[in-house]
Design goal:
six-stranded mixed beta barrel; D-amino Acid Aminotransferase, Chain A, domain 2; D-amino Acid Aminotransferase, Chain A, domain 1; 17 strands; 359 residues; alpha+beta; eight-stranded antiparallel β-sheet; single chain; globular; binds pyridoxal-5'-phosphate; 9 helices; 2 domains
Length: 359
Amino acid sequence: MVNIPVTLSTDLKKKPTIEEEGSLGFGKRFSDHMFIMEWYDGEWHNPRIEPYHRLSIDPSSSVLHYAQEIFEGLKAYRTGDGRIVMFRPDANSERLNNSAKRMCMPTIDVDFNVEAMRKLVEIEKDWVPHSDGTSLYLRPTMFANDEALGVHAAKNYVYFVICSPSGAYYKEGLKPIRIRVEDKYVRAVRGGTGFAKTGGNYACSILAGDIAAKEGFAQVLWLDGEHLKYVQEVGAMNMMFIVNGKLLTADLKDTVLPGVTRRSILALAREKGLEVEERDISIDELIAYAESGELQEAFGTGTAAVVSPVGELCYRDKHMVIGGGEIGKLTMDFYNTLTGIQWGRIPDTHGWVKEVCKA
Ligand SMILES: *Cc1c(COP(=O)(O)O)cnc(C)c1O
């Protein structure tokens, strides 16, 4: 394992107090240190942890023009039994590499990347907030940094990991959200980059998100780019539907982001003996289930919210209220089980939780 040298900050920031943890929100504050390394001459150089700082890039930097950029999102938690842990950092590191391959970017050895994140979180352990439901969010990011114009794979890259203390996603308990099914704009197309966590996918999603927000919706549900017919996923969450006691979700084609939370929930569902169908689900099929009362629950899955109950789906003039707008039983079960494993309240029988250090 490559040694990762550390330069500690001599100018530590004020950490949020317990009272301030209630208003942390998401992604607004950053800790004292970051991991960073550069790629040139065909390999990674100088991996190190140093004080959090601004980056200086040339106006011609390739990422600014051609968006060769990928990122990840995962969390570190403080457990009740006095440990700091990360949830499935190996899965995020593998996905980063899959995104990298699609975007013609260099990959990073998975064990090395996990160790880089572990060491960073260990140094920042006092930044992992204490209150219920809070966590330290990690944002690994890689971008192309050739100082030249021209569309081709760059030869220079920067990879960094920053940490952001994040508040409880649900301060007043889980709340079902309203979702607008988008019937004009699309997020991903066959053969495109939908399965990669790359900035461009989000840039092109902002307009539909804005329209939905103006109409009072929390999220957009994307349909497939070819037929505008099959349900894909929402902004940064995969979607699951409970229909007649079965769990339905879009199968992973190259248009759907393979969520680590999705994968974890499907594993839990299969263990429970729930029937799982990963397949094409058309919006018409969903509407029919909603109208016949067979659509019992719907929820999104993603690192930020873990599980987000959906109370209403709106497609054109059809308003589908799900489970009377209340949180479904399985939705609640999945939330409690997965967050229980993450915060160390429920034994981790899957090897998902990686210990960073003692708190
Ligand atoms: C990150 C993301 C998800 C959820 O992935 P997790 O690994 O569960 O956080 C789902 N869809 C999109 C588009 C995403 O960017």
